[in-house]
């Protein structure tokens, strides 16, 4: 036993469940892949109150990605975002991703359909093998789209809605254990993340705006 000073407890403030992107800097809870956040691919000022991401390379890229994500710290949580974007082709997309590394991730995205419309698609990368979980992408109307992912221990599900309609599950229940150090052939030692991203596999001119990001811990 050693003597210790009688210091007062210094608890950290509880982080709000919602980030409205109203500030001038990203929360320290958010992290990026290899490249720091800057005006070349993201902005909190071009559309005040929204986080704008400029589409770059795919989620499978090990180079220039436009991904802003926070660490998954809980077995039971819900993450929600609202995205406003107008992709013009299947090669432009933006949305909500649960991500371990370039080889293992899930992705619910808004993408173009090459006919002037927009669709929702649910993608998975399992040890570098990309899977499409919908037999046909889901057509959606113009305007912002809310995207949600729920994790219940080893089960992960994605949902969406527009306006005041009820949440709709999209795709099957997914195996959340794929986002772990114990799964896969290519370890990254970074842990599992959930966040938002944008891709433009054509000319990097596509942008997507995100109104908020929620990370809600379930009881």
What is the structure about, briefly put?
With 219 residues, the protein is an all-beta fold. It is built from no helices and 16 strands.
Helix content: under 10%
Q: What kind of assembly state do the chains in view correspond to?
A: single chain
Rg, nearest Å: 18 Å
What spatial form do the alpha-carbon principal axes imply?
Answer: globular
* Average residue-wise pLDDT: 94
Main beta sheet: 8 strands, antiparallel
β-sheet strand percentage? over 45%
- State the low-pLDDT regions, or none: none
Work out the helix count.
0
Order of helices and strands: EEEEEEEEEEEEEEEE
Tell me the number of strands: 16
Coarse structural class: mainly beta
**End-to-end gap:** 38 Å
Would you give an account of this structure?
The chain is an all-beta fold and about 220 residues long. Helix content is about 0%, strand content about 45%. It has no helices and 16 strands. It has strands at about 20, 30, 40-45, 50-55, 65-70, 75-85, 90-100, 105-110, 120-125, 130, 140, 145-150, 155-160, 170-175, 195-200, 205-215. The strands form two sheets. Strands 1, 3, 4, 6, 12, 13, 14 and 16 form an eight-stranded antiparallel beta sheet that branches. A hairpin with a 2-residue loop joins β9 and β10. It is globular and about 75 Å long. It starts with 17 loop residues before the first strand and ends with a strand. The relative contact order is 0.26. The mean pLDDT is about 95.
């Amino acid at each position: 036993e050693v003597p210790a000073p009688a210091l007062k407890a210094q608890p950290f403030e509880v982080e709000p469940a919602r980030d409205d992107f109203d500030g001038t800097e990203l929360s320290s809870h958010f992290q990026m892949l290899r490249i720091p956040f800057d005006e070349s691919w993201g902005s909190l000022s071009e559309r005040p109150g929204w986080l704008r991401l400029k589409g770059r390379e795919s989620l499978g890229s090990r180079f220039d990605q436009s991904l802003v994500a926070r660490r998954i710290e809980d077995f039971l949580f819900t993450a929600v975002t609202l995205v406003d974007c107008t992709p013009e082709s299947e090669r432009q997309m933006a949305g909500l991703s649960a991500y371990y590394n370039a080889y293992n991730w899930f992705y619910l995205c808004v993408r173009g359909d090459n006919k002037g419309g927009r669709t929702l698609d649910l993608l998975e990368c399992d040890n570098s093998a990309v899977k499409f979980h919908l037999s046909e992408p889901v057509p959606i109307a113009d305007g912002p789209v809310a995207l949600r992912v729920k994790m219940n221990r080893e089960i992960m599900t994605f949902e969406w809605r527009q306006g005041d309609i009820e949440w709709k599950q999209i795709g099957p229940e997914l195996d959340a254990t794929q986002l772990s150090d114990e799964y896969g052939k290519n370890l990254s030692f970074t842990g599992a993340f959930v966040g938002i991203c944008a891709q433009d596999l054509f000319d990097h001119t596509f942008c997507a705006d995100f109104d908020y990001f929620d990370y809600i811990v379930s009881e």
